[in-house]
Amino acid sequence: MAVTRESVGDPNSFRARGLLARDLLRGDLEGLELERLVEQSILTTTLEKAVDWARSNSLFPATFGLACCAIEMMSIVAARVDVARFGFEAFRASPRQADLLILSGRVSIKMAPVVRRIYDQMLEPKWAIAMGACSSSMGIFNNYAIVPADKFMPVDVHVPGCPPRPEALMHGILKLRKMIQDDPDLSWRERYGAVGTEEVIEAPAGSAGA
User: Fold this and answer.
1) Do 141 and 176 belong to one domain?
2) E strand residue ranges, the chain
3) 11/188 Cα distance (integer angstroms)
4) In which domain, by residue range, is 21 found?
């Protein structure tokens, strides 16, 4: 006895959907049944939304740790949190290949220019997360040597805690993913209204012919 979709019973069961796919490949579907399958199987969107969706699900964080928060950041790639479920597990050691900078720890005044240089070397579009109280608001180090991250570079998401748990960082990354899906602007200068603030180094006079 041949097995048909009518004999299976529930049309939404796994077996019934497998038989429906078989009939589609054979060319046995036609009429209203074929139109219903097409309506259920095709998703339409715009190119911009598709690109934003792909970009938000393939972030490449930089392998960059500052202090104790870096231990919590490292654990998000382990089995307990498993950030690979969302496509963020590919940490990159070069800023040229990374598009997400996680400031995991305190930032001293001497370290701030180094962090900013790494951020500037990252290619657009790029984003930044201030992880922990130190990089967000100096934390327990309320002295002249520590500087908040948003004082010298743009920060998209702040993750509170001292230190925040890996689940908190994961929540911040998912918030950033939603932000990327809703914001089509590529450059952080457009996102923060900083167009025209580029540093232009003028060549010294008389060096044009050198």
Assistant:
1) yes
2) 100-104, 127-131, 157-159
3) 49
4) 11-41
In terms of residues, how long is the chain? Answer: 210
Average pLDDT over residues 163-186: 86
Specify the DSSP class assigned to residue 186: -
Specify the number of domains making up the chain: 2
Is the N-terminal amide bond of 113 cis, ω within 30° of 0? no
Q: Provide the 10 A C-beta neighbour count for residue 100.
A: 22
Same domain for 75 and 116, yes or no, is yes
Determine the Cα–Cα distance for residues 139 and 105; give it in Å rounded to an integer.
10
Find residue 100's DSSP bridge partners. Answer: 61, 127
How open is the CA angle 50-51-54, to the nearest 5 degrees? Answer: 85
pLDDT given at position 185: 64
Claim to verify: residue 62 and residue 26 sit in the same structural domain:
no
On whether both 37 and 57 belong to a single domain, the answer is: no
Prediction pTM value: 0.71
Is the preceding peptide bond at 163 cis, omega within 30 degrees of 0? Answer: yes
Write the CATH number for 105: 3.40.50.12280
Strand partners of residue 158: 130
